[in-house]
Amino acid sequence: MNGVPDEGLLDGVRQWLVESGAEPTPARVAQALRERGRVLGDAEVLGAAERLRSELVGSGPLEPLLADPSVTDVLVSAPDRVWVDRGGGLELTGVSFPDAAAVRRLAQRLAAVAGRRLDDARPWVDARLPDGTRLHAVLPPVVVGSTCLSLRVVRPRAFTLDELAAAGTVPPGGDRVLRALIRARLSYVISGGTGTGKTTLLSALLGLVDPGERIVLAEDSAELRPDHPHVVRLEGRPANQEGVGLVELQDLVRQALRMRPDRLVVGEVRGPEVVSLLAALNTGHEGGSGTLHANAAGQVPARLEALGTAAGLDRAALHSQLAAALSVVLHLVRDRDGRRRIAEVHVLERDASGLVVTVPALRWGAEAFVYERGWGRLRGLLRGDLRDGTGQGSGAL
Fold this sequence. Notes:
The chain is an alpha/beta fold. The chain has three domains: 1-57; 58-154, Beta-Lactamase, CATH 3.30.450.370; 161-381, Rossmann fold (3-Layer(aba) Sandwich). It is 33% helix and 20% strand. It contains 13 helices and 15 strands. It has helices at 7-20, 26-35, 42-56, 63-67, 100-113, 161-167, 175-183, 198-206, 249-257, 273-281, 300-310, 315-325, 375-381, and strands at 73-78, 81-85, 90-92, 124-128, 134-138, 148-152, 188-192, 215-219, 231-235, 263-266, 289-293, 328-334, 340-350, 356-363, 370-371. The strands form two sheets. Strands 9-8-10-11-7-12-13-14-15 form a nine-stranded mixed beta sheet, with helices on both faces. Strands 3-2-1-6-5-4 form a six-stranded antiparallel beta sheet, covered by helices on one side. It is elongated, with a radius of gyration of 25 Å.
């Protein structure tokens, strides 16, 4: 088998290594093979050692994919169905596992590396690996067929706004609006669906913050990588196997407020932390930001209302705080070609009933942002920080 012993023999070596606690070095693999009455050549021993080292220490067959700097997601839905996303949509790769048991073993080993349990009693896990990679796995029978493994790669360096503009996430000239947004210290949320690039855009915008300001991040799983000299990062953690030690996002937000933040950032607003965040943005913490799952910018107030109501904040109070706390919504989409882009920029205002609604200010255009009816309000919020020279009314920015 191309210099590698058959799978049955490898299973025996795996068991021996696990029971002995030995590293899968060539010498140890050769010893395990000898104890099974097999004497193999150097090429076979080295092939077996590399195969087992990759499986027991690295990421197995997925290692080359995770090492590819263009890959953002690796998804395993079956032993022979391994997908990657390189920014242009999902692609089926030629990578495969020997069988479903190999996928399960890798998922369980990665969960153990992250300090989490994954077995029949706890058949799913959501964790972060030591290198920052986001791990999610579900075991059968909760998932039908094979173990489902999802890995989201967090690159050590954030994209710059110029790089996002070059990639088409921001239309030509649109970076001026975003730079003005940061200079004006407006509070904003970045909305969008899964995989639309919300974290990537937020990291790039935080890199524009004045170096003299202190950014405090609160995240369930540390994914933001802003290129900024003064960042304090707070990360939640799950309860341990005894059910203690839980640190939730709302706990982190409360701690962040005591750390003298110039910019308070919540990586993803999705629970009761919305109450603490809105309260903070109403007490002098300008320029706060975060991300939020929503299908459209116009749905952001309703989404925040649902989160706030679940946390015990009544509707009227939520909208009052929201009106004073948040100024702008940047909405991201992913088109059919897999390209991520800013589809809309909205401002917030109250309607006749006193509820907060969003008003379109800019929308995506191939050549530039196109003005919408809320542009005058957004331009006023930017306090002269926007220098476009294009005048007012309809047209392109």
